[in-house]
Amino acid sequence: xxxxxxxxxxxxxxxxxxxxxxxxxxxxxxxxxxxxxxxxxxxxxxxxxxxxxxxxxxxxxxxxxxxxxxxxxxxxxxxxxxxxxxxxxxxxxxxxxxxxxxxxxxxxxxxxxxxxxxxxxxxxxxxxxxxxxxxxxxxxxxxxxxxxxxxxxxxxxxxxxxxxxxxxxxxxxxxxxxxxxxxxxxxxxxxxxxxxxxxxxxxxxxxxxxxxxxxxxxxxxxxxxxxxxxxxxxxxxxxxxxxxxxxxxxxxxxxxxxxxxxxxxxxxxxxxxxxxxxxxxxxxxxxxxxxxxxxxxxxxxxxxxxxxxxxxxxxxxxxxxxxxxxxxxxxxxxxxxxxxxxxxxxxxxxxxxxxxxxxxxxxxxxxxxxxxxxxxxxxxxxxxxxxxxxxxxxxxxxxxxxxxxxxxxxxxxxxxxxxxxxxxxxxxxxxxxxxxxxxxxxxxxxxxxxxxxxxxxxxxxxxxxxxxxxxxxxxx
Length: 476
Description:
Layout: E1 3-10, H1 14-25, E2 30-34, H2 47-52, H3 54-71, H4 88-112, E3 116-119, E4 121-124, E5 133-138, E6 143-152, E7 156-158, E8 171-172, H5 174-177, E9 186-190, H6 194-205, E10 209-213, H7 225-238, E11 241-243, E12 247-253, E13 258-263, E14 269-274, E15 276-279, E16 283-285, H8 292-295, E17 318-320, H9 331-345, E18 359-361, E19 366-371, H10 374-379, E20 384-390, H11 395-400, E21 406-412, E22 418-425, H12 428-440, H13 445-450, H14 460-468
Parallel strand pairs: 1-2, 1-6, 2-3, 6-17, 8-15, 9-10, 9-15, 10-11
Antiparallel strand pairs: 4-5, 5-6, 7-16, 12-13, 13-14, 18-19, 19-22, 20-21, 21-22
């Protein structure tokens, strides 16, 4: 007889493991099934985010930033570093250690919250019966379990370019980009999105000559235009060679290099040779091996699992969250959906507000934003006011030695309600949280302008940008 659970969660990425824990807190008997494994074949819950995404990339970004500071910025602080050298093996080892800490932390949380964990791949084994949906687990121990309700949180995969499949040696996805064993002299990056810019920044800091090829004619099209232009200027100054409006042609692998033929924005035909090539052109929903056909689970025209606003699929008792459904492919969005679904199953009113989901690019300077951009407000015909404040005029930023960038507020011209906040500069990923809270509570720019912020702190730039809405900054 198969083991029976109130809830079975397929996938232990940010959406899955959080959904499982919240469901267990609400009194359900819960199982979570995940196939990720470490180098020893053991379980490695956490999904793409923990294993080859958010967590290891931030570890390498931090390490590479330390290396760059030691080679350049420390001297200004009166710190002379003689004989600076890179121990890439140790840097990668530290990154792997950070990943393992997170893997182990999730397993501990499952145990603490009495979530039964199965290491393997789960697939629907047939239609729902009296006890729920039968799910076949293929892994170290094959078995079948039953879930009265099922949450699918199977995440996404890196999108491949036709004819340039990932081998993770010369042509790299995010997975290979995090594990290059030697600093490539010349690194190519196709795609100037979050992953491309973050990985390009890591290897540039460590010594690579990095060329970024982007198909769109504008840089960071989803970002506020003023912020994106500032980012392009700063990244170019750092040494990233960013080429926009590129049409990628043939990609040819040699024994130890990759050549990319492309047409630039001027229509000129160019062939570039790289030691390694990172392809970061987006991600596709992962429904491989799920057995969707077995139960008639509906997918939309782009291959995502079709869900309604509450994350319900077309099957009774089956839900889906995170990268495998519509909406931004962000770990924290998946977490919020996971919590909301668990609470809805318990008869509560779980809620996810897509309008106040923060976005972050962890380059240096960091870029973070929430709400609408100036170009979106113009397109929607919304009357608004804008206020900006540069970190150049912020005392804490001067003390840090990092004065690049700005904070930008957008507020309704009539009500003063905050419609969007956009930051490029030091610790933007942390500063954006104040804006998220403010927007959740429908705050006005005046509310932020009237709140006391600690001095000296980077957060004062947020207050000053809010003051700038009415052209009354105090320090600029």
